[in-house]
Give the backbone structure.
Amino acid sequence: MKKYRKVVVGGTFDRLHLGHKALLRKAFEVGEYVYVGLTSDEMIREKPYAERILPYRERLRDLLKFFDVNSYTNYRVIKIHTAIGFADRLRNLEAIVVSDETYKGAIIVNRARAERGLKPLDIVKIPIIRSQIGPKISSSLIRAGLIDPFGRPLQWKRNSPKDV
């Protein structure tokens, strides 16, 4: 039996990687029904390497493919335009799933819910998934061409002395 009836998780989910998958798996592990907030194209303009972020439609396609491969059926993906998204309006949400890195966002969501007279969400936190070259696997490192979605370093072609 799941711990919560309805949980929420959100993000850009660009270049779906092991960290994203761990976050999503945890949401489905603890929740009977999962609301997924997926950032709009307009919302990502200030992110590192924003010009390399996949368009909303492609990120949505990748999420749906992940859900299908894992036989997840009890979910709804909602486009969000702010960091809080819809989490301060859905009365029946019980928990929010975040990583160590995004924990502060859960605090902001709970503050917004309190301002609307809604019950705060339980916060379910997962640890950061490390990459082989740094403290975490991140879409920014993938977009920069430094790691793959599994956190492995990408091999760069080194210039030979004659190319210098």
Remarks:
- Residues 56-69 form the longest helix (14 residues).
- The radius of gyration is 17 Å.
- Helices lie at 18-30, 56-69, 103-115, 139-143.
- Residues 4-163 form a domain with the Rossmann fold fold (CATH 3.40.50.620).
